[in-house]
Amino acid sequence: MNKRLEEVWSEIVRMNPGESEFHQATKEVLGSLGPVLEKNPEFARLKMLQRMAEPERQIIFRVPWQDDRGEVHINRGYRVEFNSALGPYKGGLRFHPSVTLGVIKFLGFEQIFKNALTGLPIGGGKGGSNFDPKGKSDDEIMRFCQSFITELYRHLGEHTDVPAGDIGVGGREIGYLFGQYKRITNRWEAGTFTGKGLDWGGALVRTEATGYGAVFFIQEMLHAAGEVVEGKTCLVSGSGNVAVFAIEKLEQLGAKTVACSDSDNVLHDPDGIDLELLKELKVDGRERLSAYVERRPTAKLLPAGSIWSIPCDLALPCATQNELNEQDARTLVKNGCIAVSEGANMPSTAEAVAVFQEAGVLFGPGKAANAGGVATSALEMQQNASRDSWSFEYTEKRLSDIMAGIHDTCLETAEEFGSPRDYVLGANIAGFRRVARAMTAYGLV
Ligand code: GLU
C-alpha cells in the first residue's frame, strides 16, 4: 500500500475504533487500489475511498423477545445501509453471537464490491443481530424474527433495502421476517426479501446458488490455467447451505469432497462425503455432523480447526471469516493444493492470502467467488418484479454465465493493471471502478 492509501486507512481505523474485521476488509481493498488511483486521479480528488468507507446510514436497534419460559431477552439489531450507487441496498442478515457493528460493517463493505461485480443493479448493505439461534425452539425463532422486523420494516422496501439470509438466517427465518413485514405494511411486496420459499415468491436455485457459484468460479480459474475440476480431491469447510451445495456441484463435476466441518468437529470421509446423508442431516434436519458418523462409521471426526491439514487439490472455505490462517495456507500449499475458492466472506486471513499468492495457488476471493448467492437474489428480484418464475435449468444457466462473467472481469482487470491472475486485485479494482463511476456521475452526494 502506498503512503497516501496508508493515511486513508489510518483515518478509517481512527474513525471506527475497535472494529477489527472492518479494518481488515478495508485494508484488503485499499491495498489493491493504488494503480487505479494513478490511472484515474479524479477518484482520489473526489475522496471516493473515504466516501465508500463511510456507510450512507447505520441503523442500530433494540430487539426484545421472550423465550418459551417467559423470560425476557434483549438483543441488538443492525442494518448498515452502505452504498446505494448501483441499486437498492442489498445483502443478508446474520444471526450469530459473534455479530458486532464491526462484523456487519466488514460484511456490508465487501457486499458493495461483490454486488458491483455481478453487473446487476444492486447496492450494498448488511444486517443482523448477536442473537444465537442455536438451541432455540421454532417459536422462539419466530418471536425473535417478528420483534426484529417490527423495528427494521420502516427502513426496507423493494426499491430501498432488500435483505436476505446469511449465517443463522435461512428459509425459515426469511418466512417469519417476510410474514411480519407483510402484516405490518399490508403489502405483498415480495421483492423486499430474497431467499423466500418457493410457494411464496422464492426463486429456484437461490438455495444452491452460493455453493454452486463458488464451484463455477473455481472451474473458471482452473480452465483459464488449463486444468479441470474432474478427478480432484476437495476440502469444503462448513456444513451450511454454502458448503452442502458446493459439495453437490463438485460431485456433479466429477470431483470428490473428503471433508467438511461444523463448529464442533471436522468430518473426514476419505471415500467421499455421502451427499444424500449430509443433506438429510443438514438441509432437511438441524443435526450436528456427529450424527453423520453414527450412520456411517467409516467416517471419522477430527478436532475443530484441523480441516486444512487434510491433503487436497482444491480448498473451498465456506464457513466464516478468518477460518483459514497463515499456517493453514502453508500446510495446504505443502500438500499440493492448486486452487482456493472462498464460499464464505473473508474466510482467509490477509497472511494466508499472501501465502497462496506467493505460491502461485489460484485464489478466488470471496467477493468474486461467493457472489453467486447475491446474484441469484437479484434474479429473484427480477422474477418478483415481473411476477414470473423461471425454470431451474434457465436460472442455473444465468448463474453460471454470471460467474463466468465475474471471473473474466477479474482476470481482464488484473491483466489491465499488470498483475496477471491476481484475482484479488482484479476483483477489488473492477468492483471499485463500477461504483466509483456511478458515484462520480451523481455529484457530491
Ligand atoms: N449473505 C449472502 C452474501 O454474503 C447473500 C446476500 C443476498 O442474497 O442478498 O452475499
Task: Please render the helix and strand layout as text.
Layout: H1 3-15, H2 20-30, H3 34-39, H4 41-45, H5 48-53, E1 57-66, E2 72-83, E3 89-95, H6 101-117, E4 124-129, H7 138-152, E5 161-164, H8 171-185, H9 206-224, E6 233-237, H10 241-252, E7 256-261, E8 265-268, H11 275-284, H12 290-295, E9 300-303, E10 314-317, H13 326-334, E11 339-341, H14 350-358, E12 362-364, H15 366-369, H16 371-385, H17 392-416, H18 423-442
Bound molecules: glutamic acid.
Hetero groups: glutamic acid
* SS-based class: alpha/beta
**CATH class descriptor name of the largest domain:** Alpha Beta
Enumerate how many helices there are, as a single number: 18
- CA-based gyration radius: 21 Å
Structure, explained:
- There is one protein chain.
- With 445 residues, this protein is α/β, with parallel strands linked by helices.
- It has two domains: 3-200, 3-Layer(aba) Sandwich (Rossmann fold); 209-364, NAD(P)-binding Rossmann-like Domain (Rossmann fold), CATH 3.40.50.
- Helix content is 49%, strand content 15%.
- The strands form two sheets. The protein has a seven-stranded mixed β-sheet, sandwiched between helices.
- Strand 6 (233-237), helix 10 and strand 7 (256-261) form a beta-alpha-beta unit.
- Helix 9 (206-224) crosses helix 16 (371-385) and helix 13 runs parallel beside helix 14 (350-358).
- It is globular and about 60 Å long.
- The two termini are 27 Å apart.
- The model has no long low-confidence stretch (mean pLDDT 98).
- Glutamic acid binds at residues 90-92, 164, 166, 194, 345, 373-374, 377.
- Glutamic acid (GLU) binds next to strand 3 and helix 16.
